[in-house]
Amino acid sequence: MSKAKVSRRALVGKVAQGTTLAVTGGSIWSYLLSQQARAAPRAVRPPGARQDDDFNAHCIKCGQCVQACPYDTLRLAAVGEAIPIGTPYFIPRQIPCYMCPDIPCRKACPTGALDSVLEDINEARMGLAVIDVEHCLSWQGLRCEICHRECPVQDQAITVELLPRRVSKHAMFVPMVHSAHCTGCGICENACPTEEAAIRVVPPGLVQGKLGAHYRLQQRPDTLRDQKSPDSQTPMRSNTVETSALEYLNEGESR
């Protein structure tokens, strides 16, 4: 076989190989782009993360925030996940954010995708804890309150409230989440003792509504805690429910 025929055959083979690679690469790239477009805004981001569109525009998928995390909390989204590929996020049930005071992940970010304005980790809003009252042990009448005890912003992000029962003198002590103070760290979700966590951290936009500026409320429920009763200097509703709970449970005992 002449050298010309060999060269021609080799050339044809390389062209065919290149075409196959181009088609395959194009298919993969098309898949990645379509996945990116369908990515659901469900990721719990590192502290200081901007809003989704702004975050995705700034994040260069470098992974420096992941490397800076001392607890291996953060990971980069892989192909096939419903999160933009290569962007950082964490799964609270597995490893929560342990609220490093110096916020090393934010400091490691070279582009500002993690906002440099955040200086106090308690001001972070990574997500919002939501309680499934149908499966929460406390809401089912058992004493648990682990989420409240483990919360790093205890008695602000999560409080324990007294819930009287209709047919019993025994009250329930139930956890309540306050969005104004919840950092979304996920420590509560990680600590929840139920088989599937009865408290979960999700992006606030998935669960929070918007009241509308045309509504005029005379009184917000969460302001009752700080009010004074007309004939007393004591709050009408206390942050610590133990005193009111004992009074409720002991009502009528001395009669």
What would the keywords be for this entry?
Alpha-Beta Plaits; two-stranded antiparallel sheet; 7 helices; 2 domains; 255 residues; disordered C terminus; 6 strands; 9% strand; two-stranded antiparallel ribbon; alpha+beta; elongated
Can you walk me through this structure?
The protein has helices spanning 3-38, 52-58, 64-68, 104-108, 146-150, 187-191, 242-249; strands at 75-76, 88-89, 128-131, 158-163, 172-177, 199-202. By secondary structure, the protein is α+β, with helices and mostly antiparallel strands. It folds into two domains: 39-124, 2-Layer Sandwich (Alpha-Beta Plaits); 127-208 and 232-249, Alpha-Beta Plaits. The strands form three sheets. It has a two-stranded antiparallel ribbon. The chain has a two-stranded antiparallel ribbon with strand order 3-6. A two-stranded antiparallel sheet has the order 4-5. The termini are far apart. Residues 226-255 have low confidence and may be disordered.
